[in-house]
Each structure stands twice: as structure tokens, then as C-alpha cells.
Amino acid sequence: MVDARRSTRAFVLICILSFLNTDGCIVDITYLESAIEKGAVCLDGSPPAYHLSPGFGSGVNNWLVHMEGGGWCNNVTTCLDRKDTRLGSSNKMEKQFNFSAILSNNRSFNPDLYNWNRVLIRYCDGSSFTGDVERVDPATDLHYRGARIWLAIMEDLLAKGLKNANNALLSGCSAGGLASILHCDRFRAFLPKDAKVKCLSDAGYFINVKDITGKEHIKAFYDDVVKTHGSVRSLPSSCISHLGPGMIGNIWIPDTADPNGTWNNCKFDIRHCSSIQLQIFQDFRIKFLNVLSLVGNSSSKGIFINSCYNHCQTENQELWFGADSPVLDNITIAKAVGNWFYDRSSFHKIDCPYPCDTSCHHGVF
Fold it and tell me: What is the DSSP secondary-structure string of 45-56?
């Protein structure tokens, strides 16, 4: 057994040293062993996990809960492919995680959230935390329990102080960004009525469009995700009533739509796209913005859409907040999120088409 007091001291020491010398903090993993008896487990049956860096000073009663991304598995084969990786087993996860960008405890790199309680929920269920199938097939030993994972971790965090939050932000990247949308109302319901609670989706707003070949391949893909994981009960009723349970997202250039890899160089680095491919991107941009317009521009809703070729900008310090980070109207993503959360000013900014934005850092994937 490990002396909890000794572990806490070591954890704090690491954070202090990190605060002085880097942009973030090294945080140990927490395995939620007690969740196993509730059936809240990863694909392989291992316990769910998260990393928690305690708040301090004025942020001691404020909470950021950030959900890791990593795509989805839509059938037994693709879920088995994930089962023995960090996306399907907590046994395969890193024991420590560097909290930077939106998770940083350094005010110089995360001005509005640095001293909050900051949580990273690890992703190991393949369903954006929506699955709930009781039966486990002994032939595969796959557990589809994403919704139970989310609930078990929420209950654990509530007991550790989340229930007393003054301010709380549920966020996520990619599949985690989709999860922040799907679980936003439930998250709000857990917290005090007078608490300020908002949800942030980073690269998690997936629209329903046909792929580059004109086929609706991804519609069937998401329908399979929902059926495989038993996700219907976890999806907001408003989504299901309008779209059907399989319509929770989209991927535009799946491998099945490009079997010869014609788009690979372009997908991995936008600077290698042909003029024709760039025009197709611009057409997609228009479709995306048309769909986004249906959300409305209420001051309670914030939008930061730049034309930078990156996936998940809240988790990268260079993109989140730095001397040369991407900006819209000279405002970084971190400051835009802070202004929106604290109601200092509304933020609805949409960039001009690529490649107009000279503040961008384009990724190579």
C-alpha cells in the first residue's frame, strides 16, 4: 500500500517545480477501482481512469472537466482493435500526463483557468462515453460501458468537491468534444443551481454531410456505433427525435471513400493539397457554416472558428495561449474562452477562408 499523505506531498512538489519551469504540471493517474463493481469499465474490463490537479487560491471551488478524444469503434472488429491499447484499456495508459494548455496550472499559459481543479477523463470506451450494454460476450470479453464510466467518474468527482463548484466547465477534444455536447445537460444537473456552468466542444462539432464520393458511409458508421454500444439511452432526446440515434457525427474523407490514398498527402498536410482539393475544402466550409448558423448567435453561446489546419486547439499550448498563438480579432483561443465563460464579452468570430489567416500554425498529421 502507498501512504496517501506521502503521495500527496510528492504530487504537490511535482506541480510546484513544473509551475516554476514549464507551461504545465505532471499529474498522476487515478484508477477508479470502485467503479468495477458498478460495471463501469473500459472495453477490456479494466477500471476507468482520470487525472486530477487540485485547484488553489481563488480557484479552489472552480472545476474544469476535460474529456479525452480518440475516435470511435463501431463493431466487434474495430472495438477489438482498440481493446489492448490506451483507447480500450486503462492498463495501457500513461501513468502520468503533462497538464498544459487548457489544463495548465501556470497563469502565464492559462490565464483564466490555471488555478481551477483541472481534470482529464481518459477515454477507453470507444463511444464518446455513451455505451451501456449489460451482457458481455465471453468470446470477445468486450465491455460497452461508456455511459457508466462517465457517471462513475462524475460521482467520484462530486464527492471530491465538484458538488460545491461555483464555476464549472465541461470540455473535450474530438470524440471528447462530442461527449461534452451529449453530456452537457446532465453535467449541469449535477451542480448547484447558482453555479455558473458551461460546456466547450473543441473539434467536436460533426455535421451530417456526404463524404467526398457522395455516399452516406459515415451515417451507417455512426448508426453502428449506437447499436454496438447501446447508446440510445445516453443520447439527448432532442437529438434522437430530430436526427435518429445514428446521426451523431460525421467524418468527411474516410479510407473507404479514398481507397487509393489520393487524398493522403492533402489530409496529412494541407500545404500539399491541389487547387481542386482546396476548392472541395472550401465547399465543405460553406456547408459547415450553413449548419452552424442554425445554432443561433445568442450571447450565451460562443464560437471561435479559425481556418487553421489543426485538430483540437485547447490541448496544444502553442495554439491555446502563447506569444504567437492563432488569433481572431487579435484574441487568442484561451482569452476568447475566458471572456465567454465569465460573460466579459460575447464571442462569435468566424475566420476568412484558408489560407488568409497568417497567425495560424498548420499541423502535419
Answer: SPPPEEEEE---
